């Protein structure tokens, strides 16, 4: 592949072929960017960063092989802080934004904002390379039962994430270093907000809506 | 009349004497202090002598001896009521002694009080010697024995053996759980028997206790049932976790397909417009069709690559040749460890060692599988420190029960040992 020194080198990490092709098309149509590599697993992203000069990475979070884009981003930011990273996802999991910020990910983009010719992703990429940090104001608001996702407190979301692993109240309390009574209160509050009959229903809905994602 | 009074006095004195004997025996049994024993003795002796004197007076009514006559005349003629009054006075020390004995009994534990107390316990209690003779059995244990065997406990060894045998003809079921004999009745009552060896007066004695655990037993059954339900729910949630990620990926694919098909629809509409009305730019239309066709080429659901293929492709892309001798693990947990190790060693090969070939030798030593990574680059100048990726790899390896060793001399080697899983 002929390398244009004037264009920023982009690596796309997306396990699904079609979105990966869309990313590729968007980048190829741009005058500012050049696609260096398109990978289907986040687990090997660091290898390419160690070997080749990469300016910008556009990386999905959840991969089919179990690898996690945020984990890969964290590792790359430690060894190559100069590489700019945009995390893309379609999941409204609330912790992704916070974790991305804490890792030092430069920008964050939700996939449902696919644009037409003037792709919003392209604008995010341009702004990121210009030194901006582009983050959505909030995660997408989703309905869960009678409640909206923004009605849950951070503590409730944390407890809910452990609940979806199938843990008991005592196990959740041990994992989060809180009392079982506090766990029970949070779950009770969430059931009141959502109108669900029991914790199992709450856990299932939280998982299927993507409100909380449990890493493998 | 005077004689009658004397006779009454003598009778009362006799009764008091026997009472004094009784009191003496009681204080001796109670092992009271010597003062009480002495007091009882004095009272007894005095009462005896007094009674004897009265009987002599009565017997020799007509004696004319001076001392007897004087005493007789004193009692019979001048002070006949003195005998009764004196008997009444004697009642005072008797009363004090009886009161003292009663108070002592109330405040002190006696064998009878122990037995009485044990009989009020709701739990059964049985103590028996090696030959089966019963030292102590309380009311509750006898009741339970009657309920099980139709008779009270007469021999401890026979009782214990019969319980252990758990005869089919018994009106209950007998089971053994956690060092306890559990007896369950059809009406739901449950008893737990517990035995332990003791010693009494230098002789071995067995203590058997029986608890009514009906409520606790049924609560445990209910909790176990609930736990089983929760475990099943947990299993389903874990399975759901795996399938939700698949579902989400499928949803993303669908969303992308919808977008591509939308674009295709727009391209068709634009082409029709161009053909029928001559509106639009030909080159732009052709560009749109090229893009759409290119995307449609990848529309069929691709076969998901294995983790090894991604890391091996990465090795190829970065110019490192990977030579593997042996079979790579297929177990998902182990695969992740070896894929991660491959990634680390590929990076290490070109970045630190300056090499272009990575070797992975897989050997089976019977119990474990050994994975040895080495490269054709330069050996490390100093001992390799486990940071970042190697640190993560060690954590991953040890989490699955394996072990990892990093060797820096004479050349770099990474050794991972994973035990062979059965099945």
Brief sketch in words of this structure:
Chain A has helices at residues 17-28, 45-51, 69-79, 94-103, 120-129, 154-163, 169-176, 180-194, 199-208, and strands spanning 8-13, 33-39, 56-60, 84-89, 107-110, 143-144, 147-148. Chain A is of the alpha/beta class and 216 residues long.
Could you outline the blueprint of secondary structure elements for this entry?
The complex is a heterodimer of chains A (216) and B (423).
Chain A: E1 8-13, H1 17-28, E2 33-39, H2 45-51, E3 56-60, H3 69-79, E4 84-89, H4 94-103, E5 107-110, H5 120-129, E6 143-144, E7 147-148, H6 154-163, H7 169-176, H8 180-194, H9 199-208
Parallel strand pairs in A: 1-2, 1-3, 3-4, 4-5
Antiparallel strand pairs in A: 6-7
Chain B: H1 2-29, H2 34-59, H3 66-78, H4 82-107, H5 111-119, E1 124-129, E2 134-137, H6 139-149, H7 156-165, E3 173-177, E4 180-184, E5 190-200, E6 203-212, H8 214-277, H9 282-297, H10 307-317, E7 321-325, H11 332-351, E8 357-364, E9 368-375, H12 388-399, E10 403-407, E11 413-419
Parallel strand pairs in B: 7-8
Antiparallel strand pairs in B: 1-2, 1-6, 3-4, 4-5, 5-6, 8-9, 9-11, 10-11
Helix pairs in contact in B: 1-2, 1-4, 2-4, 8-9, 10-11, 11-12
């Amino acid at each position: 592949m002929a390398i244009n020194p004037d264009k920023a080198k982009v690596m796309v990490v997306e396990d699904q072929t079609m979105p990966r092709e869309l990313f590729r098309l968007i980048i190829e149509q741009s005058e500012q960017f050049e696609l260096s590599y398109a990978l289907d697993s986040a687990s090997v992203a660091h290898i390419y960063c160690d070997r080749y000069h990469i300016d910008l990475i556009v990386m999905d979070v959840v991969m089919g092989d179990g690898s996690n884009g945020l984990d890969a981003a964290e590792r790359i930011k430690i060894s190559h802080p100069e590489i700019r990273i945009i995390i893309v996802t379609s999941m409204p999991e609330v912790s992704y934004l916070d974790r991305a910020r804490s890792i030092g990910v430069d920008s964050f983009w939700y996939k449902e904002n696919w644009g037409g010719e003037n792709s919003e992703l392209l604008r995010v990429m341009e702004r990121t390379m210009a030194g901006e940090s582009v983050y959505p104001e909030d995660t997408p608001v989703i309905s869960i039962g009678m409640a909206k996702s923004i009605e849950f407190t951070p503590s409730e979301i944390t407890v809910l994430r452990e609940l979806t692993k199938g843990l008991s109240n005592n196990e959740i309390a041990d994992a989060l270093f809180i009392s079982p009574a506090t766990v029970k209160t949070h779950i009770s509050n969430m059931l009141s907000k959502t109108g669900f009959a029991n914790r199992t229903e709450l856990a299932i809905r939280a998982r299927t809506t993507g409100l909380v994602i449990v890493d493998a | 009349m005077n004689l009658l009074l004397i006779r009454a006095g003598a009778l009362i004195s006799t009764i008091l004497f026997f009472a004094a004997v009784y009191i003496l025996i009681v204080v001796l049994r109670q092992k009271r202090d010597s003062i009480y024993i002495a007091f009882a003795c004095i009272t007894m002796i005095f009462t005896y002598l007094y009674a004897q004197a009265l009987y002599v007076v009565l017997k020799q009514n007509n004696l004319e001896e001076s001392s007897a006559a004087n005493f007789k005349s004193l009692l019979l003629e001048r002070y006949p009521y003195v005998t009764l009054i004196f008997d009444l006075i004697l009642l005072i020390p008797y009363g004090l002694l009886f009161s003292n004995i009663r108070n002592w009994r109330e405040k002190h534990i006696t064998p009878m009080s122990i037995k009485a107390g044990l009989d009020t316990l709701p739990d059964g209690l049985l103590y028996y010697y090696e030959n089966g003779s019963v030292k102590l059995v309380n009311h509750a244990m006898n009741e339970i024995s009657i309920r099980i065997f139709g008779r009270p406990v007469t021999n401890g060894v026979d009782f214990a053996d019969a319980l252990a045998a758990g005869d089919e003809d018994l009106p209950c079921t007998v089971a053994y759980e956690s060092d306890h004999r559990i007896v369950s009745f059809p009406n739901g009552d449950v008893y737990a028997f517990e035995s332990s060896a003791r010693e009494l007066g230098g002789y071995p004695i067995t203590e058997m206790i029986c608890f009514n655990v009906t409520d606790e037993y049924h609560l445990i059954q209910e909790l176990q049932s609930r736990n089983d339900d929760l475990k099943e729910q947990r299993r389903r949630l874990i399975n759901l976790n795996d399938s939700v990620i698949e579902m989400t990926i499928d949803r993303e694919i669908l969303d992308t397909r919808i977008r591509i098909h939308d674009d295709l629809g727009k391209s068709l509409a634009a082409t029709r417009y161009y053909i029928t009305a001559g509106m639009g730019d030909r080159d732009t239309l052709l560009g749109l069709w090229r893009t759409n066709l290119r995307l449609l080429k990848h529309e069929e659901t691709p076969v998901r690559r294995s983790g090894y293929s991604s890391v091996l492709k990465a090795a190829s892309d970065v110019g490192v040749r990977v030579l593997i001798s042996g079979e790579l693990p297929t177990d998902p947990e182990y695969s992740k460890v070896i894929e991660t190790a491959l990634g680390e060693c590929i990076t290490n090969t070109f970045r630190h060692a300056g090499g272009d070939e990575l070797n992975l030798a897989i050997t089976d030593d019977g119990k474990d599988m050994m994975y040895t990574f080495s490269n054709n680059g330069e050996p490390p100048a100093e001992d390799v420190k486990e940071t970042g990726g190697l640190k993560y790899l060690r954590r991953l390896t040890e989490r699955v029960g394996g072990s990892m060793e990093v060797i820096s001399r004479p050349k770099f080697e990474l050794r991972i040992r994973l035990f062979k899983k059965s099945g």
